[in-house]
Structure formats: C-alpha cells, structure tokens
Amino acid sequence: MEELEDGFSEATPIWAIFGDLMSALVGVFVLLLVWALGFQLELAQSLEREVEKRQVEEQRRMALEQALADPLAAGRVTLRDGRIGISGSVLFSLNSDELQPEGRELLRTLVGPLKVYLDQRDQLLMVSGFTDDLPIQHGNNRYSDNWQLSAERALTVTRALIEDGMPPAMVFAAAFGAQQPVVSNQDEKGRSQNRRVEMAPVPRAKNQGNEAQSSDDG
C-alpha cells in the first residue's frame, strides 16, 4: 500500500502537467477560432462593400445612359467606363480648336441632361482633350505641341458648354495630349479615334460644395 501511495504521488505531477498542456491547447484553439471568425466577418464586410460599390457604379452607368439616350442612339457620342466620348472629327477640323457647326450643335444637346445628372449627384464635369501621337505640322504657329492643342480643345468645349447653360462652377478642363490613347496610333483609323474629347462626371471635393454655398450666400 505504501509503494502504491508513493507511486501515485510520483504520478500526480504528470497529470497536472498534462492538464496544463490541455488548457493551453484549448486556449490556442479558442484564439484561432476567434481569429478565424473575425477574418470571415471582415471578408464578408469587404465583399459586401465591393458589391455595394459595383451596384453604385452600375446605377451611375445606367443613369448616364438614360440621360444621354438620344445622342447615344444616334451614335454621336460613346459611353465607356462612365466617360462620354466625342470624336475629334465631329468637333474640330484637323489641327484646329475651332468648333464645327455639327460639334457645336451636339454640345448644345448635351448640356440639359448633363446638368440634371450633375445636379442630382452634386458632381462636376471634367472635359478632357486628347490628340493622336503625330507631331504638330510645321507652319502651324498656334500650337507648340499636342499638349497645347488638346488643352485648347478642352477649353473650347468647356466654354461652349458654359455659353449653352452649364454653370461655370460645375465644369473644368484638362489636357492629356497624346497620352492615354484608346487604340493604337499605327494607322489613320486609330489616330482618328484617339483625337477626341471626353466628358466625365467626377466627385466634388467636400469643402468645395461648402465654399460654393458660402459664395452664393454672399
């Protein structure tokens, strides 16, 4: 009996250590389980935000298509990734920033639906000018390079929109020159597509709306 008691006494620390080890393993398992649940929750929230973002983008695209239904159906403008594209040949002659009658009339028809769209979403309209990659022809002293030509074209379109009723505070111009072509410049067909003006609704800076409101109040 004494030997059994001694043997039992000697075995007791082993069970205690085993119990501590099991407690530690359970603790680790709980931590892993909590981490896994947290990761799954974060992933689910991320997926939900992405779905909402895509839904907003789809609604934005559909709203633009509805606003521009007539010119889109007539093939006078294109709509790609929320950007309204107008061929440079419709608006301008080659190496010119003077609006052609057809281009001016087209811009006039766009002001109404674009203004409504921008008002409803408190957004601005960015007018961007693009050219092909051919250098400005010799003898043309008006433009030093394609950057200047694209800038003048964007400004011309911006001024025309304002003259036809677009509030000046809702539109601004940008120039990209030969950068960001939509197709290759290897042939005339591609270059003609790259000579274009695009209009894209963009978010208004938060403090910009407050400044505009203060200006109106003043």
Characteristic key phrases:
alpha+beta, 218 residues, 60s Ribosomal Protein L30, Chain: A, five-stranded mixed β-sheet, OmpA-like domain-containing protein
What does this protein structure show overall?
- The chain crosses the membrane at residues 14-39.
- This protein has 218 residues and is of the alpha+beta class.
- The protein has 2 domains: 1-59; 68-204, 60s Ribosomal Protein L30, Chain: A.
- 61% of the residues lie in helices and 13% in strands.
- It has helices at 2-67, 69-73, 88-91, 101-121, 146-163, 188-194, 206-217; strands at residues 78-80, 83-87, 123-130, 171-175, 196-203.
- Strands 1-2-5-3-4 form a 5-stranded mixed beta sheet.
- The chain is elongated, with a radius of gyration of 32 Å.
Summarize the structure in short.
By secondary structure, the protein is an alpha+beta fold. The protein has helices at 2-67, 69-73, 88-91, 101-121, 146-163, 188-194, 206-217, and strands at 78-80, 83-87, 123-130, 171-175, 196-203. Strand 3, helix 5 and strand 4 form a beta-alpha-beta unit.
